[in-house]
TrEMBL record:
Organism name: Desulfofustis glycolicus DSM 9705
Keyword field: Iron, Iron-sulfur, Metal-binding, S-adenosyl-L-methionine
UniProt name for this protein: Radical SAM superfamily protein
Keyword S-adenosyl-L-methionine annotated: yes
Keyword Metal-binding: yes
SUPFAM superfamilies per UniProt: Radical SAM enzymes
Radical SAM core domain boundaries: 17-257
């Protein structure tokens, strides 16, 4: 067993809500891309630079976790894009987890562009070593929205990588961001997103709403980069109620499939959850009933969900 390090355990800054029970392993720090206009979350939380941790450091953390939770079964690798650390590092981390714990699940955030660079063969090798699920920021299926937001990926790239992941047997969890097309492009944003989901049928679709957080100079926190485009008039934020119309359109365009859709973030105005195979009609009904509420009730509910915070 490794010696206990003379430093505190290092953990990822952010994890998906669905990984709340997982043991968190920090492989990289921050986001190596860090250019998405709608994000900026790592700098906001004080992690503005990106770095890859040495295997020896990660291994020390794994030993600490082993002492604390020897029966842990589920693991999440962070920060934003741990696979950018390369297949050798990730492979060694995964091997060590399986060697030390009764592992059932190893999941990770992953950028589509990073997976594309790794290539089909490496993805298959990581699956064989035990990577079971990746959390991908799809954000939108609309090429123009992705370009404007500087996501650094196209629908074609998502299609290609998703095919490799499916062939390797790695589960895919897609994140979709309501409001990302602004008032200018919300219909195209939702229609193209539904088309891509219908085609690729990821295991999960997780819905969030665009969050435009302000800077906090006292705490030294930067604001959401997209506020610059809001201020210069090139992006008009969607209203809270507008995002419910977006969700309604998305659900209308989605087709029955094995995908599980969930609004598993508190910032959604309306939260629906269910399988696209069996619950699509019920989810559509729930969203329609919200939109049929008297205006005052809708307004009161939306007032709790401003898009600029
Ligand atoms: S959305 Fe993801 S890839 Fe884009 S800047 Fe944020 S953490 Fe990085």
């Amino acid at each position: 067993m490794s010696r206990k390090p003379n430093r505190p355990l290092e953990q990822p800054v952010i994890r998906p809500p669905s990984e709340w029970q997982s043991t968190l392993i920090r492989v990289t720090r921050g986001c190596n891309w860090n250019r998405c206009r709608f994000c900026g979350i790592y700098p906001h939380l004080g992690q503005s630079s990106f770095s890859i941790r040495r295997f020896e450091e990660i291994a020390e953390d794994i030993e600490i976790m082993r002492a604390r939770r020897p029966q842990a079964e589920d693991f999440f690798l962070g920060d934003a894009d741990p696979l950018h650390g390369g297949s050798e590092l990730i492979g060694r981390v995964i091997d060590m987890l399986y060697d030390r714990f009764p592992v059932k699940k190893v999941t990770s955030y992953a950028r589509v562009s990073t997976l594309r660079k790794l290539g089909r063969q490496t993805i298959a090798e990581l699956a064989a070593r035990g990577l079971t699920r990746v959390h991908l920021g799809l954000e939108s299926g609309d090429e123009e929205v992705l370009r404007f937001q500087r996501k650094g990926q196209s629908p074609a790239m998502v299609r290609e990588v998703s095919g490799w992941l499916a062939a390797a047997g790695i589960e895919q969890s897609f994140y979709v961001l309501l409001g990302l097309g602004g008032t200018e492009r919300w219909r195209e944003h939702m229609i193209a997103t539904a088309e891509l989901i219908n085609e690729l049928q990821p295991a999960f679709v997780r819905i969030r709403r665009l969050w435009l957080y302000e800077s906090d100079p006292v705490a030294g926190r930067s604001g959401c980069p997209l506020l610059q485009q809001v201020d210069d008039g090139s992006f008009t934020p969607q209203s809270a109620e507008g995002t419910v119309h977006e969700l309604a359109l998305l659900l209308e365009r989605l087709r029955p499939s094995p995908t599980y859709l969930t609004c598993d973030h508190a910032n959604n105005v309306v939260q629906v959850h269910g399988s696209l195979a069996s619950d699509l009609d019920e989810m559509r009904r729930e969203v329609r009933s919200f939109l049929a509420l008297p205006e005052e009730q809708r307004r009161a509910c939306c007032a709790e969900h401003r898009s600029r915070i």
